[in-house]
Write a structure and sequence with these properties.
5% helix; single chain
């Protein structure tokens, strides 16, 4: 287990990257214990992330032409910037 402290500005929607759920605590410092496999990574609503599929590759160059998939995190209006 590891202890992390984080602050997410209020007035925005933030997603927990690991669980893909909306983080309900904003506008104040939060202390939380996470397992080693979790990361304190949060994505701002309205963000689109392109991720390279690399599950079958041992090196990035071998995966260079693999397809990508998009992860879309909507904001309060249901929009994405990407």
């Amino acid at each position: 287990m590891q202890e992390i402290d984080f602050y997410l500005p209020a007035g925005k929607i933030w997603y927990n990257y690991q669980s893909k759920t909306i983080e309900p605590v904003t506008g104040r410092w939060v202390e939380r214990e996470l397992t080693d496999s979790q990361q304190g990574l949060f994505i701002l609503g309205g963000t689109t992330i392109a991720l390279l599929n690399h599950t079958d590759c041992l090196a990035l160059l071998a995966c260079f032409f693999n397809p990508v998939h998009l992860e879309v995190y909507l904001d309060a209006d249901g929009n994405s910037s990407g």
